[in-house]
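fyi for ur records
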Amino acid sequence: MNNAANQQQKRRRRSVILGILALPVLVVLVYLAFRKVEPQELLSIVSQANWSLVAVAMLVGILSHLIRARRWQLLLNTLERPTTLFSAFYAVMVGYFFNLLLPRAGEAVRCVVVSRRSQVKLEKSLGTMVTERLADVFVMLLLTLITVLFSLTTFGAFLWDDVLQPFFGRKLGAHPLTVCLAIAALVGAVLLIYWMVHSRMLGLRLRAKVRRFFRGLAQGMDSLRRMEAKWEFLGWTVALWVAYWLMTYLVCLALPATEGLGLQVSLTLLVVGTFGMFVPVQGGIGSFHLVITLWLMALGLPRAEGLAYATLSHGCQTVLLIVVPAVLEIYRIIAKVRRNAKLQGGIVEDGENKE
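which gave:
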């Protein structure tokens, strides 16, 4: 467990460093997304939203988080100790909140939270989280393929010209030798780590801890194979992405500028927005706005209207990731106080009976 705690401390340090390094990137992305649009014009478009539909979209968002928690609970319950739905939901929401502060920190944080609440080994909870994320990656790849097939010309060109090429395409095309050297360095680093672990350089005790950590991680990832409710897991996975799609569509309906886009375009918005959230900045701020705006501009919408949709959609998600964890934390504190008061009352009553 000490090794898992040390690993967690290292993850925290890396997350803090990444968060500091990501701030300039976040500022640049926000500038690129919001430039050429007057704040008054943006507020004017957003103010025209149907707030009843926005509220329904946010309720669907809460439902999606509950579905994610239930799906994760199925994996966690294959481990040595059962986990309640509240513990899984609380951990998921706290993790999402930390993603707003430090990019990519939320996944580790939610594993720490559920490990403390359910007495599950940290490395095993990390393994279940990896399994859950792999399921999402598979669905995301499938949705991307479907989206490309349905709008091959528009989406395919957008994906390459506005998403992939700015980050990878030009660098790969201009410096093939750099790519080869990077791959060689990566392979060399893996081989070096492998040699160090299997040599006496790290010592028998440390090697045993490393093996124990990865064994626990593998057991967590093996939870899907050992899980009895595989069809339920599959059903919740489908329901999760349907909820994401529905939330995207409802926000489209809420704005006059995007209400006529339809379900198919909403699916592409979901896929494009997910790509935007991949960028390691706090909460996808700036990156989500930029890719969504560029995609809607590719469909013919003015920049201000595309940015208004991105701002409203991201704003709904961000509000949920702040308010829901706060409510859960208040509920947890109240429940703890009541439990302690009841326990203390029971002790006092026992003492009086003895007298």
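Residues 303-354 form the longest helix (52 residues). thats all i got for now
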